Amino acid sequence: MAEYLKRAIPIEQADRKQIQDTVEEILNEVRTRGEDAVRFYSKKFDHWDPPCFKVDPSAVELAREQLPGDLVEAMQFA
Asked: Could you tell me which of 35, 69, 34 has the C-alpha nearest to residue 49?
């Protein structure tokens, strides 16, 4: 049986529709405008505007090596 560590706050149907519409708009923008849209939303939501969104594979590997083994296993399983 699943054990819930935290329960989601119920969302009203109107709010759910607004969220769905917003997500659809973002995904459509990313599909049509690509990295320009990613950059726009990165600035809007995260206030982050890196020179490049691509992460060097060696940096990914270095970060992975610093994670606890059980977390890596859980992420691989997911």
From this structure: 35
